[in-house]
Amino acid sequence: MTFQTLTAGKNSVTFKSFGVDLAADLYLPEGFDPTQTYKAIVGASPFPQVKDQIPATYGPEMAARGFIYLGFDYLGMGDSPALPGEFKQSRYMFRLIENTWDAVSYLGTLPFVSDIYGLGVCQGGSIIASAAVTDHRIKKIAMVSGMMAADAFQWTDRDIANQVIAAANASMQKQYETGAPDYVAPFGLNDEMSREEFVGAAAYPEMAGETYDYYGRDGAKGPVAVENFTNMHIGDQPMQSLISIGEAYADKITQPSLTIYGTNASTAPCSTQFVAKLTNEHEELTFDDFSHVDFYYKPEAVKASTDAVAAFFAA
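Above: the chain's sequence. Below: its structure in token form.
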């Protein structure tokens, strides 16, 4: 696709990362004119999402507010290929960061792009925060329901963490020996479960309920609603996620940042503990009425977050 064929709204594009073409959607504002310049946003999605989930929600919203937004499928996810000899659903943290750097490079080739910003939701918050540490082409970052300080979730109970590690180690060994993918359901939710089945077996039913309402078989953005999405994932992924924590990089971030989260969300400490370590120019916006997943798709929560992000990036 050439610059001349791009139009307002959603445009399917690709860009290179790890030598392959990653599938992406470039959202352009109404009245888009390639002879003008616009502020652009690289989006980072939650684990284990594809571009038809959060990016398909936030892309149009940010374009409606005058920004260019790039949402994409990470290497091995959605419509993007895995590397030769590797398997799909292999979303590894360090690669996500490099994919993000390449997305910034792609935006930098577009003559109508001026400043570039980063917007991450859930795990995407950690991706954006980590990527921005050494990529100062990203001028500002915003994180919504971000999982930057994941220590509070992943390492508080060392026995559970070690069980997760043992399972991930075994999965990696199995895949190496068999040459076949080892798919697991990281949250205990597979693509066939009913809401009653998943929530009934959950230790935290309320959290499970909102998870299912988005990701479940019958959910708003589950495997039925989004054809190229699955809840199944390569089993060795925790070997990277457990040592990829944005909190560790907080005091290295120099760009202005905005953190948005629900005060009563179970994941709120992943934002508050991150913010406590920041030394940059920083803004914090909290909401008492919105949960972690509300910011994924609930209209009032999405409007609140995208309004705030637009104002922050425009300033």
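The chain has a mean pLDDT of 95.
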